[in-house]
Every structure is written in structure tokens, then in C-alpha cells.
């Protein structure tokens, strides 16, 4: 039996740095034995059918293959379509009433305890807000991510140390859910 997955690559194809062409990423995933491979945008979103249920092993294999092929390390998270749908369904903000640029999800490599963010003065960032979910953080940034002071604060090493994290806007979150439906 096989499962639909999304691979979320962190920090590639940004301002011409750490280039991973999507055609080569699709080819690489095929060489790793995955099927029904497709990509979305240039920012490191790939969907594929895999025969194992070990997300960590899939991510580690992809990370090794990317470093061998392209010569630099890239953090990867691999998540099932069911997980992605669950994250979208659990959104604590009124996603249907917001623009895609106003809502973001940061996916983490593991569960994150709220105590990690206890020192953050969330009131100082209003109307921006965040909420934690299942290995995810939801960020509401009404003026978009580029103007979000809360996003900058949440990205500080004090809050991210030891985590693999990568963010997607709400439009991409929903597109990946759609693409990973079995």
C-alpha cells in the first residue's frame, strides 16, 4: 500500500540562492522510488506517492539525496496528505474570511510545547496572533508576512533553536491538501 505525501523543503530558491530546479527535484524523487511525483511553485513543495509510512525516513533520504545532487544541505519535512488536511481543518482562525497572504502555517519536525513561547509578549504584536497545533504554528498576519513583526519575533533563535521549521501561506497549505488527496 502507498501513501500520498508532501515534501516541504526549507530555504531553497530564495533570491537565486540554494537553487533546486523543480524538474530535477521531481527526477530525484523518482530515482528514490517514489511515484506520481509533482511539484508546486518554486519554493520547495513536492507531492509524491511513497510505499513506507515512516515520514522521518522519507525526509532523511530526501535530504541525503539533495545534498549529494546539489552539494548543499536542505532541511526537509515529509507529511502525509491526511496530516496536511488535519492541520488545515484545525485552523483556529477564520481562514475562509481571510486572504491567503494573511494566514500562514509553520510546520515543525516535532511537537512544540507552548512554554517555548512563554517569554513572548503577544499583546505587543496585536492584531497579529499565533496559535500552536499538531507540529504546526498558525500565524495570522493581517498585513501579510512581509510586514509581520510577529513573524520576525517567532523566527528568533530563542524560539526556533533545535527545530526544523518551514512556513507556507494559506493558499499553498490548501493546494498541498488538494494535491495529496488519495
UniProtKB/TrEMBL annotation:
Top-level lineage group: Bacteria
InterPro entries listed in its UniProt record: DUF1697
Leader sequence segment: none
A Pfam family matched in the record: DUF1697
Transmembrane feature ranges: none
Name assigned to this protein: DUF1697 domain-containing protein
Species, as recorded: Streptomyces pratensis (strain ATCC 33331 / IAF-45CD)
Amino acid at each position: 500500500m502507498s501513501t500520498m505525501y508532501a515534501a516541504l523543503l526549507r530555504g531553497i530558491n530564495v533570491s537565486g540562492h540554494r537553487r533546486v530546479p523543480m524538474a530535477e527535484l521531481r527526477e530525484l524523487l523518482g530515482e528514490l522510488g517514489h511515484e506520481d511525483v509533482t511539484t508546486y511553485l518554486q519554493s520547495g513543495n513536492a507531492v509524491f506517492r511513497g510505499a513506507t509510512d515512516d515520514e522521518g525516513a522519507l525526509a532523511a533520504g530526501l535530504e541525503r539525496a539533495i545534498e549529494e545532487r546539489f552539494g548543499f544541505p536542505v532541511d526537509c519535512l515529509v507529511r502525509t496528505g491526511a496530516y496536511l488536511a488535519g492541520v488545515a481543518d484545525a485552523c483556529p482562525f477564520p481562514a475562509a474570511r481571510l486572504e491567503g497572504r494573511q494566514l500562514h502555517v509553520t510546520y515543525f519536525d516535532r511537537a512544540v510545547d507552548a512554554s517555548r513561547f512563554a517569554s513572548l509578549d503577544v499583546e505587543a504584536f496585536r492584531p497579529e496572533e499565533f496559535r500552536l497545533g499538531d507540529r504546526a504554528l498558525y500565524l495570522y498576519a493581517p498585513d501579510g508576512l512581509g510586514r509581520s513583526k510577529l513573524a520576525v519575533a517567532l523566527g528568533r533563535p530563542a524560539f526556533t533553536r533545535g527545530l526544523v521549521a518551514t512556513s507556507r501561506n494559506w493558499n499553498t497549505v490548501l493546494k498541498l491538501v488538494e494535491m495529496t488527496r488519495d
